[in-house]
Predict the 3D structure of the following.
Amino acid sequence: MADSVLNEKIARDVVRIDSSRNFKALNKLMVISGLGYTFDAIAIALIAFILPVVIAPFHLSGIQSGILGASTLIGYFVGATFWGLVGDKYGRKQSIQYTLIIYAIFSLMSAFSSNFSELTIFRIIAGFGIGGESAVIAPYFSEFVPRKFRGRYTGMLTGFFSFGFIISAFLGYFLVPIPNIGWRIASIITALPIFYVIVLRFKLPESPRWLRLHGKDTEADSVLNTITGSTELPAEIDGKPSEIYISEIVKVLGSAKRGNSFKQIWSKAYRRRTSMLWILWFTTGFAYYGFFVFVPTLLVDKGYTLIRTLSMSLLIFIMQFPGYYSAAFFIERFGRKTGVTTYMIGGAIAAILLSQSSTTLEIIILASAMSWFLNGLFGGVYIYTPEQYPTDFRTSGMGYASSFARIGAIISPIAFGILAVSIHFSGVFVISFVVMLFGAISVLILGTETKDKDLERTGSASEAL
């Protein structure tokens, strides 16, 4: 198919998606997609509650506890890159389904681990699955959402992470303290519901943008008819005749150069935004996972009992929910760049104040504030990143960036596990403050605004330069 013909079809698809107001279909798709993020979060968060109770029976050293805390994230690192590439080459839907199957099997196996090595290996492989899903779902879903609602809807999609963290906190509070078997029961429970999600995933449509790009026109038309609720091209969009809007998008698409995705993201057109994204993901991953994986252990180190620690952690984790959803609307209203930097700076301020806190009330309030800002920040990152690249390397670009976050996420629990012995509670949060401040400055200097622009325009080389 000639590029000019393909670009014309893609542009017409963009107009149909951006003019659609079929929110019923969009909401259904968001829920089905978002449930995957819920179980992703459970897999990540549960280790925070398991870690304090397996240190003694598994005879873990400080570095071993750090490695176990980072185990799922090590799998994430490899999985995000691998499955991002699979999503671009073989389709978003296939990638999502296989990642869920891998996660379900090895999450269940981790419940029957008898030592440090087994538990770590099973969680790494489970992380390989959910790391891929985490990288693919946001760009997949964003390809269905009208541009005026993309920030809000993608933000609400990532809000499903908060359900997973809160579920893990309840499981950690009620089940994990049961001697010897509590953490195993919790692990089994968190693995079982994923099979329901796998069934739902067979109802997921493939991305029409991906289908069109790969010459599957009949399937693309069918998905578009369902998701938009119409077979017709609107006469105008935002007061502008559709044909003029289409010609503008065709012009943008005509400047695109296709090829190896890694070379593309580091080409002259994209290297600035790729640098910004990798710094953003690294600093976000470092602060986020260091905090949520290690906060129960740090509270125990500060002298709180296990039950007291788990009850405090439950309150802190619950604050994730308003964090995600406040960011979804804040970023839609004030823009991606402003929203991401605001929430990152808010998290940095909470971290430095937390490092100086001493009373239980201060710790709960400031840790809850940090939970709020960190989750709003992560929601913003998932909104912002898919908008930086075009359809042909959108999920691989997201996968590479997401993998870079896992480097930060792997380093922080290990570093916190080692450093907590010497710098303790306060020093850990000083480090988080410095890292987040660096991330915010990088976005302010290197980032561009993508609010209210269609994906073809935000991801185009001409916009990137």
Residues 23-54 form the longest helix (32 residues).
